[in-house]
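Whether sequence alone determines local backbone shape is best considered at the level of individual chains. The sequence in question and its structure tokens are set out directly beneath this paragraph.

===
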Amino acid sequence: MRLAAILAVLLVATGCVSASVSETVTELKADAELGSGAAATELGTMFLTGTVVRRNCNLGRRYLQNAADSGHLPAEIALGQMFQRGCAGRMRSPTKSLNWFRSAADQGSAEGQYLVGAACLNGDVMPQDDVEASKWFRLAADQGHIEAIFSVGLLYERGMGLLQNNIEAEKWYLQAAKQGHAEAQSRLGTLYSKGPKLIRRPIEAYAWLSVATANGNKVSADLRDEVARKLEADEFMKAQKLAAEYFEKYKAK
């Protein structure tokens, strides 16, 4: 009997998985034995989170470690996240977490680059370095990472690690907002309503704040209503029409 089949029998017998999912586990284990980093990562994540199977932190870590050691980038990210959050109150190691994120980032992973940037910005594991954070965020943003795109906009708006520039902030916020990023939509609306006069656009401010609110950003509602009270009747009608258009085009993803 193949090792994969033996493992499946043992998992069912010990109650780690139900018989209905043992076949899937068997297939994933077989693929992992053949060197599939994707299969090992999926198995590792399943055991760490207790998704479908009974939670087993040690087994989950083992699968992720094997896949990460073979250079599978998603496994490196997943292992870094495991060390970041821990598992069942154990295994937490911020230093190991950052090392795995950095390994993935150095190999071109946009998620890894974003997470290293976040670590630089937060300063939990290393001294806070806004300039270094901006470099990593920009690398990830250039690959289309939506959280990194938003973060670059935020750094420009606040002048953290980058020269303060509301025009640049608008550009990056707009890029993320059009992909359904609710917080970017909120910041864009705020910029259009309370930013420098050069970029104030109350009709667009209302539209973006409305979309952000609809997409779950609750803090946008009060400012949206404040903007609405300052609009003339014809402006308000245009703003509502634009908001309806944005609702359809820029829903949260």
In short: Residues 1-10 have pLDDT under 50 and may be disordered. The chain has three domains: 1-107, 113-164, 177-253.
